[in-house]
Amino acid sequence: MTAEGIVGQYLALKRESDADLLAMQMGDFYEFFHEDAEAVGRELDLKVSERSSGGESYKMAGVPLSELTPYLTALVERGYRVAVADQREREDGEIVREIVRVATPGTLLETTSEEARYLATVVREGEGASGERYGLAFVDVTTGRFHVTTVAGAGAACTELYRFAPTEVLPGPEVRGDDDLLARIEERVETTLTLHATEDFAPGRARHAVREHFGDVLESLGGSDGGRGGSRSGSAEGNADPIGEAAVRAAGAALSYLSETGVGALASVTRLQPYRPDDHVELDATTQRNLELTETMTGAGRSLYETIDRTVTSAGGRLLKEWLGRPRRSRGELERRQSTVAAFAHAALAREEFREVLGEAYDLERLASRSVSGSASPGDLLRVRETLALLPRLVEVVSDSERLRESPASEVLSRPDHEAAADLREALSAALADDPPNAVAGGGVIRHGFDDELDDLIDRLEANREWFETLDERERRRTGISRLSVGRNKTDGYYLQVPKAEADAVPDDYEGIKTLKNAQRYVTDELREREREILRLEERRADLESELFGELRDEVAARAALLQDVGRAFAELDALASLAVHAVERDWTRPELAEPGVLDVEAGRHPVVETDTEFVPNDLRLDPDRRFLIVTGPNMSGKSTYMRQAALITLLAQVGSFVPARRARVGVVDGIYTRVGALDELAQGRSTFMVEMQELSNILHSATEESLVILDEVGRGTATYDGISIAWAATEYLHNAVGAMTLFATHYHELTTLADHLPRVSNVHVAVDERDGEVTFLRTVEEGATDRSYGVYVADLAGVPTPVVERADEVLDALREEKAVEAKGGSGDGGTVQAVFDLGSGSFRGAAEAKAEADGGSAVDPPTGAGPEPEPEPELDPETERVLADLRDADPNEMTPLAALQLIEDLRGRLPE
What we know:
Helices cover 44% and strands 19% of the residues. By secondary structure, it is of the alpha/beta class. It is elongated.
């Protein structure tokens, strides 16, 4: 085929694949052309060459067939969709090329990351805020995990996406036009949005895809249409209640996308796991970010996961991270995890032996997927064999320890089919060489004695190679040529080489094939025959060994579910042992799981901060009679840390972990909600205050009496009176209408008076020691309210210039005593203007007004008999009267804070200029 024909074929295949880049096989290389070559060269630092043909030039870059995987992985992890076209030869000898797969961020098997790589699909059904339902499916082809659920509202959908952090999202037809939702997804999740065929989201087609792959599981999903399941077996784990048609559509679309992209790992997706968000603690995206569960807000420091992770396997690390993002509400499951952590914590020697053995394990879930896809190498099967061999060793470690033997760890290890695991391990031991090469082509993969035909081929091949190894010595003796040698290369094959100085001694049966500068190369009839025999044997051995290895890999692939069972048991015990290690190292305690509405912590600590500083522990008590704490105290004194540690202790308890405290009773919560400061999002058209109000609104709408709410300042982003009003109203609403356990840190000391009027509100404060003008933050939380914020002192600590700090102290003292404050330089001629701040009006008054009031009169009242009579108050215009009437009719006790804000905006807009 001409160059123009090859490039034309390349462009046609790329259009067919709808991919960003195309790798097309040409002999022993995969080639990229035109813009693709430039992109690959730029991204992967490949050499780009320019070729000319027929008066036109084109750029190209290539990688060897055997090296495609690392380049493909690097491109996909940069967000590219890369199609791969392989070539084959037809019976008539013509070379044809066709797309065999499209590698995308969500379908990449050959990942270099230990993180989960989820593909997500999102479907919307219903209209209006009250009727919208979102079906979501999450599938990780590298491990075979497949989760589906249905949630109410876009906010809940975003929360689930944030939990799973998919690398690729397929929005359904109804979601594609929702620019706000897509912007929220891209804002919160680092992902690639991909448009998939609309018809694959259709209910009928989706149901068919689910039935074909999993069999009769539609009833548990709520999408059954009475059809019979396919031949494949599947199970729907989790809640047995149906979760809706939207989930079926999402699951079906995900399956069709995986099939269409040719990922080749669908057979490893053996279980469909429906779940309900209310099986887990509600953690909206804001809360997950604010609590820095798996990543920090600034990129500096350490997340909770990074702090407590002591896992020894990649699968265990993935599971621990998943647990932190999806705490459980099931007391039974949490107590089971706690009991296992306790057993590992107390059985120190057995724990360390267990972790030492487990540390030799490889990632069986991913090895299963590679086997199913046909990409597993001999080294991968060796890792399967070695990891399966650990199962009986781990059972022995657990059995030898009374604490572990009597703990749920024994039950976890008993879940996999031990007999089937032993059979597969023995099959691999019998077939696979002890130390096989990572490529099949070179031979040495299959153990001697496994296959008689292969053994015979190898024996004959070795005999022929030995004939060649001793040929030079035999020929030197026969011919008397002292420097005769035997060689082999791709051009000449096997040959005899004789120096020209001894050419006269060459016998008649030598046939010359090449003349060199100082030597001559020859062959003989016997040498040719032996060479042909070796080539035949080598080719047959390679074919047979490849065939035998393929059968062995298929046998492993057929047991993918078994490998997943063993791998998941190992991951669970690794995560639990990791929690035990950290608990022992940091002296954490097992929390008592209580009924909702209780959080009683003695000497609690922040799990991350305590690792970096000498931490001051603090107590915390919330119960049915004391559900709302107003937390006051200076800036930088530890209020935020105190509240975050309350949230993290609650979360850790509902992961199944021990907690950083001397003692803890933790009531199971249905959600944790935080508002702890907002990053300015002007680029998205939202001010800091707007973000703050939206977060507050979400909490007031979402929290229940079984939730934990953390509010670190509310209303600070607007005018003082507006802010106090919002904070006051939010406190009343949370106390009266929601009833959630709440910690509210504020600098609005006016709010502390609410403890005298609302029965379940109490005040606590962070203590300060102030002596001789020196302030010490004690980091100790005590009962009662504080009366100062020490903001000027903090400004001094921050390095604000001394004149500013000293002047601030003067102004603060004057304002506290309601004395006149000099506005220095205010007259414009270097003098000063006397002014006092009027707390009633919220404005400064002049010196004359202040003095007259101090003397008991009014600076604006004219002397008796002097000056004109005061003008009468002007009548209000009708619209202003109506605004006042509407204001009088409004009942703050019946309004949410957000509704009050909207009313204020409306009334202000109606007032005349």
